[in-house]
Amino acid sequence: MLSGFFPSRTVAVYMARMFLIRTFAILFALVLVLQALDLLSESGRILATQGNGDPEVWRYVSLRLPQIAAFFLPFSVLLGTILTLITMNQNSEVVALKASGMSAHQVLAPLLVASLGVALLNFAFNDRVVSRATATLSQWQKVNYGKLPIDRGDRSNVWVRDGDDLIEVDQIKGRGDATQLGNVTLYDRSGGSLQALVTAPRGHRSGDGWAIGPAKRFDVASGQVATLPSLVIGHGVRPDQFTLASVDADSLSFGALKSAIGDLSESGRPTKALEGSLWHKLSSPLSSVLMPLLGAVAAFGIARSGKLFVRAVIGMGLGFLYFVADNFALAMGNIGAYPPFLAAWAPFLLFLLIGEAVLIRTEE
Predict the structure, then answer these.
(1) In terms of C-beta density within 10 A (0-12 exposed, 13-18 middle, 19 or more buried), how is residue 361 classed?
(2) pLDDT digits over 211-257, tens only?
(3) 205, 239 contact by CB (below 8 A)
C-alpha cells in the first residue's frame, strides 16, 4: 500500500534526483557568495594579528564554511523545491502525473522523502561538524585570532566569584572532581579594593577548594612578588561553577548539550533557554521536510495561465515566513515567554498545518 502511494520507481528517482541536484547547486552558490562576503569583512582582523597569514585565513574559512552551509541549507531546499516544481510544471510533467490519477500528495511524495534524507544529513552535519567548528571559532575569536586553542571541547575565559574575590580561568578541561584549570588568576579583594594578584599555570580540585601552583602572589600595597609551590583557593566553589559558567548551545552537540542541561538542573540553575535550543537542534533540520509542502503551490496550476510566477512567489513567501516565525519563537523561548518545547516546535507544527491546508484547499 505504501509503494502505491508513490509514483513509479523511475518517476520517483527522476524527481528526487532533480530536486537534490538543484538544492545542492543553489546551496553551493549561496555558500560561495556569502563566504566571500564574510571573508572580506573578517580577513583584515585576522591578518592584523602578528604572525597570521594565508594559512590562518584558510583556517577561518574552514571553520566558518560549515556554519554558513548549515544555516542556508533549509533556504536551499525551499528554492530547490520551487525550481524543480516550476520546471516540471512548465514541461507539463505535473499535468501528466495528475492525469494518470495521482493526487497532489502523491506527486510531492518523492520530494518529501528526499527532503527527509536531507534533514537527517543536516542533523548529523550540525551535530558532528558545525558544533565543533563553532566552538573552535568562538575560542579563536576570543583571543583575537591569535594562537588557536587545541582542545575543541575546552571552556575558555571563565570568571567565577568567590565572596569578594574573583577567579579567572583561561582554559578548563574535564568535568566534576576531574576538572583541570589552566592559567588561573585570583583577584584577592577586600571591601571592593584589590589586595593581591595571584597567578598560576594550572589547578585542580582539592577538598572543598582548588589547589593551584606553582603560584606567584603580587602584593598591591608593598609591590613585592612571592613564589608559592602550591596554594588552595576558592573554598566552596563547585566544579560546575567553572564548567557550566557559560554554556553555548551552538558550540555543543545534541548529547553534550543534553548532559550540560542535566548538570545545570542538578545544581539548581535555570535551563529553559537551553532546553529550547536542545529541541531546536531537532526541529531545525526537520524544517527541510516542510519546504516541499510550502513550495508545492508552484507545482500546480496551468503554466500558460500566467499565474505560475505568482504561485512561486507565494511558495517563497510561505517558506521565508516560516523562518521568521521560527526565529521569533526561539527568541521568545530564550527570554522565557514561551515554554521550551513550544518555542522549538510551534512554528514547525503551525506551518505544517498551513501547508496542508493550502494544498488540500487548492489541489485536493
Answers:
(1) exposed
(2) 998 999 998 888 889 898 888 888 888 777 776 656 778 888 898 88
(3) yes
